[in-house]
Structure formats: structure tokens, C-alpha cells
Amino acid sequence: MKNPAGIKAFGVHLRKIREQRGISQQELADIANVSKLTVQRTENAKYSVTLDVLLSFAHGLQIPLKELLDLDVPDELS
């Protein structure tokens, strides 16, 4: 991974949004048409997602992609 701190920040942000909406990992996976493992690995910073998966997450969470990417970036990446 090229930016592990950024990937971790995204995973934390994704989990926060998902939990705020009361959606389980499996429900997000089903709506986004990805595996539950993809959701788990993304939230746990074990996987760097593609644009296609980002768009699917945004659709599944019913938010604009911009909101999904609006996260606190660690200082070393800003």
C-alpha cells in the first residue's frame, strides 16, 4: 500500500458513515454489489478500493461520492 495512513482514515470514515445509517457490513455489501469481505477489508485498512467500488459504496450509502471522500486526512498526506 502506498498510503496506509490514508487508507486507514478512509476505512474509519466508511465505517462511521455506515454505522450512522444503521447499515450492517452485509447490507452495504449487498446494496453495493461487492462482497462482505471487501467491506470488512476496506474498513480495516487491508484493501485499497478502486473507483468502481468507491462509486458502489457511495450508491449503497445514498451519498455523493464527494461526501464519501470528505475525510480527515493524516498530516503526512495533506
Radius of gyration: 12 Å
The number of helical runs is: 5
Q: How would you describe the shape? A: globular
Say what the CATH topology is: 434 Repressor (Amino-terminal Domain)
* Annotation, overall tally of beta strands: 0
What is the CATH class designation? Answer: Mainly Alpha
Strand content: under 5%
Mean pLDDT: 91
Query: How do the SSEs run, as a string of H and E?
Result: HHHHH
**Structural class assignment:** mainly alpha
Assigned CATH superfamily? lambda repressor-like DNA-binding domains
Uncertain stretches of 5 or more adjacent residues = none
CATH architectural group: Orthogonal Bundle
Distance between the termini: 17 Å
Domain module count: 1
- Largest sheet at a glance? none
Structure characterization notes:
The protein has 78 residues and is mainly alpha-helical. The protein has one domain (4-72): Orthogonal Bundle (434 Repressor (Amino-terminal Domain)), CATH 1.10.260. It has five helices and no strands. Helix 2 crosses helix 4. The longest helix has 17 residues, at 4-20. The protein is globular and about 35 Å long. The chain starts with a helix and ends in a 10-residue tail after the last helix. The model has no long low-confidence stretch (mean pLDDT 91).
